[in-house]
């Protein structure tokens, strides 16, 4: 039975790429009955009904999946935040990081529009970049105009399935176009009146970029922590996870517990205050979340 990977889902059709061809497939009714929805990124088996067409018969097990955007088997998430227009937000970046870390997906941080940064703002952003690198994140400061810099990181995509995340207007589509001009993804500058990007991608599709596949997605339409459990939150902050064995209490939540290594590290300046503040804010948000039935 032929096998392949779903690279696009549109209007009830799944486009399955094999080594030789892309097949336009529909899902079997059995999926609806078993509440299985094939996702872009899924490895599947299918029956070829007509040349170039078929029916998906089996969805193979996934290593991970995201709900919004709906995509599976992701190797890395590239989180794009802009240095300016819209302004750099460590709070927003940390929200993205927690969502990605909670799914055990490797995050990579791109800071775009560095060429637009004024001198006084540059030092401010450079400090943040240093902080995130110290935590262990791969951080790349980018400018669309500096093609040599973009070329130096094209290897990041090779043989990987990547998803790009970031708020509207940070330059996700412009970056993808710079990596692969053939894509010609439509972009619009930020609408001055709305203060947000006008370009919206309406479906999920995996596109070839620098020897790998990248999802141009409708963005993370929800940045709520609906799937993040409170006890998993400390694991979504790598610098806190690294200290868990040094806390007096096993399963320490680094909040009100005494003799907490994380709180000591914050006091000593080893963990930035803003990271800990964001952690406490997310803690309260998840803790006060209304239960879903």
From TrEMBL:
Keywords: Cytoplasm, GTP-binding, Hydrolase, Metal-binding, Nucleotide-binding, Ribosome biogenesis, RNA-binding, rRNA-binding, Zinc. Zn(2+) binds at residues 247, 252, 254, 260. Its EC number is 3.6.1.-. The keyword rRNA-binding applies. Residues 72-221 form the EngC GTPase domain. Monomer. Associates with 30S ribosomal subunit, binds 16S rRNA. HAMAP family: GTPase_RsgA (MF_01820). This is Small ribosomal subunit biogenesis GTPase RsgA. It comes from Terrihalobacillus insolitus.
């Amino acid at each position: 039975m032929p096998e392949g990977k779903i690279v696009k889902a549109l209007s009830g059709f799944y486009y399955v790429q094999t080594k030789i061809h892309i097949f336009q497939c529909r899902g079997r009714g059995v999926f609806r009955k078993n509440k299985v929805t094939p996702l872009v990124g899924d490895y599947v088996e299918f029956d070829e009904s007509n040349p170039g067409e078929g029916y998906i018969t089996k969805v193979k097990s996934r290593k991970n999946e995201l709900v919004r955007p709906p995509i599976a088997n992701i190797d890395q998430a590239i989180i794009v935040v802009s240095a300016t227009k819209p302004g750099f937000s460590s709070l927003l970046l940390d929200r993205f990081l927690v969502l990605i870390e909670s799914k055990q997906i490797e995050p990579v941080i791109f800071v775009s529009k560095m060429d637009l940064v004024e001198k006084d703002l540059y030092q401010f952003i450079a400090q943040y970049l240093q902080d995130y690198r110290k935590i262990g994140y791969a951080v790349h400061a980018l400018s669309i105009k500096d093609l040599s810099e973009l070329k130096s990181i094209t290897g990041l995509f090779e043989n990987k399935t990547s998803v790009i995340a970031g708020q509207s207007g940070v330059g996700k589509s412009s970056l993808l176009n710079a990596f692969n001009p053939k894509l010609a993804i439509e972009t619009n500058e930020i609408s001055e009146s709305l203060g947000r990007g006008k370009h919206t991608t309406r479906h999920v599709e995996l596109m070839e970029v620098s020897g790998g596949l990248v999802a141009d997605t409708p963005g993370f339409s929800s940045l709520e922590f609906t799937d993040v459990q409170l006890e998993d939150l400390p694991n979504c902050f790598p610098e806190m996870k690294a200290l868990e064995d040094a806390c007096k209490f096993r399963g320490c939540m680094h909040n009100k517990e005494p003799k907490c290594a994380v709180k000591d590290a914050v006091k000593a300046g080893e963990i930035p205050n803003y990271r800990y503040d964001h952690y406490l804010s997310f803690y309260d948000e998840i803790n006060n979340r209304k239960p879903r039935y």
